[in-house]
Each structure stands twice: as C-alpha cells, then as structure tokens.
C-alpha cells in the first residue's frame, strides 16, 4: 500500500511569544529533544514511502538545521524518506492556516498516495497503523480520537460523537461540549478522497482549522470514521499552552522518552 505522511509544522504559535518568535513550536525541546523527533519516529513506524514536513519561510533554516542531525540516529534509507516543503508565508498575518498549508503541500509535492496527516505540536504513543487500517477498510477519512475525560479541556478541541467507529457529530471547539472524546490532530485520508480538499478550498469556509473541514464534510453527508485510543497505557499531549508544554516535558523526563536520541 502506498502511503505518505505529512507533518504540519507551519504555525506561528502566538501563545508562546516571545519564545516562538525565535523557535517554532515543533522544535521546542521535550525532554531535551526537539518535539518533531518524536513525531518523525512515529511516522517511520508506519513504513511511509515519504515523510514530508511542511513549515513556513520564516522557520525554514531552523528545520533544515535540526533535521540535519537526524543522520546521527537513522539509517540512510530512512533519512531519504524525509522531505521539507516550505510555505511562502513568513508571519501570522499571511499564514495559510492548517487546511491551506495542507493543500499547498499536497500540490507542491505532487502527493497522490494515501495520506497520513500529523500536527507538529503533539506528543503521543498511538500505534498509527490502527487508524490507517480503519481508513483503508472503509475507504474513508479516519481520525484518531482520544477521551480527554474533562469537559473543560474538551472545549479546546474538536469534539466528536461516535457510534460504531462512525463520527456522527463533530464540533470545533464548542463552548459547552457534550462529550469528552476529541480529535487529536492525527488524520488519515485515502487517495480516493483527496479531491475533497480541493472542493473545500473552493468553498467560503475557513481554511485555518482542520476541524472546520470535518464539520463541512459531515454536513454534506460524507462518512468519517474515528479510532478511539483508550488503552490506559496510551498518552497524548497537545503542546498548546505553557501548562501542557510543562506537563509533556515532565512526562517525557519521567518516562525517559528522550533516550532514543541522547548521545552516547
């Protein structure tokens, strides 16, 4: 099966200023290691043909420098899978947004394979092959779902209602969420469904958030699937606030997640 992975790392992280004025959030150290290293490791586990990292013009050199260090940790055939695509934006004011950046990367890199999409600011343990399998079995878009337990936390994310792995409802950052099952920023799109992004880009809907795209698809009758990662051993952190960043760092240090990349 042909599969590409696209890591979206083109945001400007306003909530982390002034730090994010100089360092992009996917390169923030977690346990002393750039966050994106953990994400690349999970992408490699899927056997992807290519791993494409999408960032913006402002942070291009940051990524080229950090990625050059991967030669110390991976085999040449693994390094050869990793590519970088640069969005033309260089500030918050002219950013493409998550969907705009996704669409730009697909067109710029000529992607026509099944596509796994990972947001570049998450730390997680999920076996990504499970969501890929679910999407392939149903030839449908599939989302990785996690029960965050707390409704106050859920309102910061896309909230979903599931029945038999089918997403019946999707609400992007609702003020009063009815459920605590959320979208985690991990998505699978079979190549037969990539055209839906073209349709959405030609609509008047917001291009800033992936959640807007999924709300649109459900309203027009597209069937979406969700795989719930609910094993007690699973973990997921969204590095969206300084508090969550601190929790992710504490967890990585406690569990020794960084050891894969520490010399000697």
TrEMBL record:
Record-annotated Nucleotidyl transferase domain positions: 5-253
Transmembrane stretches, start-end: none
Pfam families on file: NTP_transferase (PF00483)
InterPro entries with a match to the protein in the record: Mannose-1P_guanyltransferase, NTP_transferase_dom, Nucleotide-diphossugar_trans
Residues forming coiled coils: none
Descriptive protein name: Nucleoside-diphosphate-sugar pyrophosphorylase
UniProt organism field: Nanobsidianus stetteri
């Amino acid at each position: 099966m042909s599969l590409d992975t696209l890591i979206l790392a083109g945001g400007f992280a306003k909530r982390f200023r002034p730090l994010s004025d100089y360092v992009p959030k996917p390169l923030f150290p977690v346990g002393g290691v750039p966050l994106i290293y953990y994400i690349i490791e999970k992408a490699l586990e899927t056997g992807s043909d290519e791993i494409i990292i999408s960032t913006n013009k402002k942070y291009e050199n940051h990524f080229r420098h950090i990625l050059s260090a991967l030669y110390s940790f991976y085999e040449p055939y693994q390094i050869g899978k990793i590519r970088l695509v640069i969005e033309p934006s260089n500030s918050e004011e002219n950013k493409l947004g998550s969907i705009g950046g996704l669409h730009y990367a697909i067109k710029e890199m000529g992607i026509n394979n099944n596509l796994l999409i990972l947001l570049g600011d998450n730390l997680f343990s999920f076996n990504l092959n499970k969501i890929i399998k679910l999407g392939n079995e149903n030839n449908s878009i599939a989302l990785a779902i996690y029960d965050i337990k707390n409704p106050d936390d859920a309102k910061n994310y896309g909230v979903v209602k599931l029945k038999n792995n089918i997403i019946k409802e999707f609400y992007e950052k609702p003020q009063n969420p009815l459920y605590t099952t959320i979208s985690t920023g991990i998505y699978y799109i079979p190549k037969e469904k990539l055209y839906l992004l073209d349709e959405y880009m030609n609509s008047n809907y917001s291009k800033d958030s992936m959640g807007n795209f999924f709300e649109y698809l459900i309203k027009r009758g597209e069937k979406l699937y969700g795989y719930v990662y609910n094993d007690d051993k699973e973990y997921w952190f969204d590095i969206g606030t300084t508090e969550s960043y601190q929790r992710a760092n504490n967890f990585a240090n406690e569990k020794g997640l960084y050891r894969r990349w520490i010399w000697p």
